Amino acid sequence: MRLKGKVIIVTGSTMGIGKAIAQKVVAEGAKVIIHGLEEELGMQVVSELGPANARLHIEDIASEGAAGRLVDLALQTWGRLDSLVNNAAIVAASTIYDTDHAFLNRIMEVNTAAPLFLIQAALPHLIASRGAVLNIGSINAYSGEHNLLAYSMTKGALMTMTRNLGDNLFREKGVRVNQINPGWVLTENEIARKKEHGLSDTWYENLPNVYTPSGRLIFPEEIASASVYWLGDESGPISGQVVDLEQFPMIGRNVPKDENTVPLK
């Protein structure tokens, strides 16, 4: 077991990528704090993993004091904290034409500020365990879809934070901070989001090859498997790194000029 005895907080883990990560770290021997807004879904995850392995905390991650309450739950339950996974995020459409001040502040608050403050609250305990932080970003950090302006901005900021803290915290305190940038992942929320945009119930079954060279989208479980390396001791002294998990290179890609390049609406 690659994470035996470790205690890990995974935000946004009642569904999607966060849930898959929580399931995977428990399978690898860790204890986990499940977090999110969906109490019924969270209770299902805890039931599946078992109360000896998981505890649930339902709260908006951006609420005042939420970070401290998550950390306290881990300490009160298992007496230690080894790793954080900052996964909770709002994925909401916006463009230059409809992004107002309040909307941008809310997206930044959840997607970028909350991860920073959770690291801050957990830091004394991560120093004690020489722990690790894994931030879940997005390939949208590099530019982003045309209708994901605010979201893409927050993921770009998260990437800068990861590199900054990954350098300073590791040199000064021995705490590693890394990030993975998933590409297009077939989560429950992504299925629903595309249906809201007018696509069919089975939109993900016949995607253009330019988006899915493998013939399908990435599964949450595949992101979870990659996460284990960064949360465990086997990643050794590696810190301040951002790794893209996509089916094709984001920079310098040779996009074929054929009918499969028509973007999805």
UniProtKB/TrEMBL annotation:
Q: Which Pfam families match?
A: adh_short_C2
Q: Which domain of life is it from?
A: Bacteria
Q: Where is the signal peptide?
A: none
| CDD domains on file | SDR_c
Task: Quote the SUPFAM superfamilies the UniProt record gives.
Answer: NAD(P)-binding Rossmann-fold domains (SSF51735)
Q: Which InterPro entries match?
A: NAD(P)-bd_dom_sf (IPR036291), Sc_DH/Rdtase_CS (IPR020904), SDR_fam (IPR002347)
Q: What is the protein named?
A: SDR family oxidoreductase
